[in-house]
Fold these 3 entries.
Entry 1:
Amino acid sequence: MQNLKENIDKLNKYLDNKDYNDIDIIDLIKYISNNFGTKLKLNLEKKNKLDEILKLKSKVLFVLVDGMGYYKVNSLDNSSIIKRNLKIPIQTVNPTSTACVLSSICSASYPAEHGIFGWWHYIKTRNVNCCPLLYMERKTHLTLDEKGIDENEIFKFKTIFEKFKCNVNISMSREYINSKFSRKFIGKKANTHGFYSIKEAFTSISKRINESNKNFNYIYIDGLDLASHQYGIESKEVKDILSEIENGIKYITENNSDTTVIVTADHGQVNMVSMLYLNQKNDYTKYFYALPSIDTRMISFFVKDEYKNEFENKFSSEFKDDVILLKTEEVEKYNIFGKVNLSEFARNSLGEYIAIVVNNKFMVCDSVNLEDKLNTKGNHSGLTKEETTIPLIVI
């Protein structure tokens, strides 16, 4: 493999970055879950640390803000309620793609276990390229139901919320609340609520919190991530959404004094300097038996055996300044997808190669997405500390 030494050094620097506490989002979910009656294994040192930080009350509101990384929160003015209550930076899972992280949160497991790595996914047993969150085939936009694929063929995990020994309330945008992925995330026991606005999300969950003496409540807010993609992470649009979130949190704290509010994110974002188009100089499609998957800053390539050497040489030569190309077995040695062995399903979800963009660029592999991606300002799914470090805010 013809990777530049400086790219290997960047990769090692990303993976060795320890300017955050050695707690990750799986540790956090396990800790909260155990507080509500589950018995998940958690490192004692991490448990003790979270005991000191969280001090959970009988009612918990867990707010997940899509795309709100630690460094974004840490840059806010001290008048911000979320900045004032920022406890520590923690680590998310990799790849830093929303489908991957949400699957990890609801299953309390690493991507290496559940096998949903990103926005795009390949179901090898069915030879179908799909978008897990949309539950849709990529090219035809047919639902996976229309393709005759059962949800359990792609979502191998079970939601942890069904094991909670308390009332569970889940709030998401009305656009997502009844999707196949959301129903898998939520499970069969939780109460659900779809909202049209951030204000409605907080006012509605406040009422549900007061309905019982012990409960777990979850709000997923997606607008900040989209605004960061479209306008950049420092944009007015991002600041406006943060202001709405702050107002919602203030409303909860004023009306629910018996509730611990925890705010975190699935990933951060970085501003982009340019886009890489895979097929701009060479047509790589002849090498593939499936469409490239995962996302735009970490890509999995499914390469036919007879083309492996040619693909390696051509790709490494063309993109050597910005992308590191690894064989999948090499990636596993780095423990990028979690410090556990790849499950059979996870291994089958990956191709023969993983490409990691090491600079502030992203790669589009499909001409269908070119126009959609041309104006992208912010992005994620890579391994920089800005993408992988998320805030732990406790109020």
Entry 2:
Amino acid sequence: MTVERVLVAEPRGFCAGVEMAIKALTWMTRIFDGPVYCYHEIVHNEWVVRAFEGVGVVFVDHIDQVPEGAPLMLSAHGSAPEVVSGATARAAVVIDAVCPLVTKVHHEVKRMARDGYDIIYVGHEGHDEAVGTVAEAPSAIQLVEPESGLGDYQPNDPAKVALLAQTTLGVHEWMAVMDDARLRFPQLQMSRKSDLCYATTNRQDAVKQLAAECDLVLVVGSHNSSNTQALVRVARDHGMAAHRIDSADDIEASWLDGVAVVGLTAGASAPDHLVQEVIDRLSPTEGFELWSTIEEQEYFPLPPQLRSFVTTLQQLIEAGVTARDPGRDGWLQRDRDWTATEALEVVSA
């Protein structure tokens, strides 16, 4: 059956943390002679990873795979303390592209562990973010899968229990565990500000609204993207057929049988050109429209050490050509307006 309309969720795709990480790695490929190394995938998207591999970035899962003296970036998902120290000892330059929201959770883990709390961490076993967070205080923290809940969890002291979460969880996943924990441990301690990523929550809210208007929801994103998988679960929990796809090539014709209106969104690490290709593949007879729920204006600056390199590079270039315009913004001042999509165009050129 021919698709009549496509409703495209807004916001969708890149969040501020992904924007920062992609731009940071793009700068790394321009400042340093290759290869540039990256610990874990810079973000969980196959297309983005392949694009950086195309310009010589080498992604590794162990620090000892990085040659001594090589430039190294740590991924947006956050790294264990021993990874950070090992990277510093081995690499000539280490740029940590961890999302500030993940850093906030790491700080909470260390603070709560220092204060003697048993910490329940709601997250997905093996996910890069969860691995790095648990490693901050492994003797004080217990990972709990959101699907499994607290089960028979028993703390050392029921009056000294804290609860934290992986930033990419679905709100409904988090709430179920939180409600149970509050019931079982009345003195439960939590972060003053929600651990859940604003972008994850916003995208899930948009999907909830889309689900009421569509016959099918398609979510663009990679299989190892937790927030992408959460979007699929949210749509299904609201009674809608939903599928995750890496690209338009993954769409199966049988999914479109009897479907007039398709809802379309993308995980926080999925490039927007993949969304456009899905629209082209569906070729809706009545076109597409943006389904806007909230406007995002968050911005995360480049990592501090990278900002220093960029500033130094600009000063050297200006000195070399004896051309400096004090009234004109430099590269860092223009970073807010330079998008990750534009950065990937540089990488893919």
Entry 3:
Amino acid sequence: MQFKYTVFITRPIILFKLIFIMVSSHDFEEDKRNKKIKIYVNGKYYIRDKAKISVFDSSVLLGDGVWTSGRIYNGNFIFLKDHLDRLYKDLKLISLKLHLNRKELSNLIYKTIKINKMKNDVHMRIIISRGLRSTPYQSEKVVVSNPSIIIIPEYKKPNVKIYKKGLRLVTVSTIRGNLNAQNPQINSLSKLNCIIACIEGHKKGGDESLMFDINGNIATNNSTHFFYIKNNSVYTSKGKYQVTGITRQKIIDICKKNKIKVFQKNFKLAEVLNADEAFVTGSFGGVVPVNSINKKKFKLNKNNLTYQLKSWYEKLLK
């Protein structure tokens, strides 16, 4: 079968000036340098406002693919091995064989960093879709190309206000589903479940949404991983109903190294609302404190264990 379509999305990726109404763990400081960044798309580099991909790509038609993202410090992709482990695991789970091995993809990532002459305050997203399809249809049998690879590096520094103000979390009715429905452990391009939860949370006045699993236990947030602290012990879920968290695991490791009790267990909302502190983790924001969950308020001060964990985590980045 030969693929002859040459139709492309006509609207390019454009840098918008964002106005933030509420705090988010993904808030960032706007950087004018992003107008000239070079984005990798299937073998070529494009200036941001020229970056494009076919409307027949699996990412566009079906959200069919996986992704990972991480930060660049001193020209290095932090925890790259962990990110590639997760990426290739997710590729296997969706039966998508990438034509590049880990070393080749790693070289491509660093080539993108070098071409953009980037050193610090950089966030990079790596997207793998199943590739071009000959027609809009779910079957993998109509895929007529190698998987598509998109690498987007941005100057993206977290907004320091999120660490001082903290996040408002609200519980939502949208849950993290079962593994044999749409596996919530896969970091897929199809994020509709999380998007719906995010919108629901915003409508309730929250910055992010705290989601339950199928058994009524707290699972995770719509875009970050959740922890709470009680009596200087740290608690997080078992991780069954959430994406494998790179930063999440680093915090668990930090707790063990510093002899802080850390528990991965099932827990209900009532336990969370009785906590002393709460925080979230993610590759972009690192460790971000929570100032409230529903009507429960937390006091944020420099002596909180959350900020000590944040400090220890940031030392790993240097």
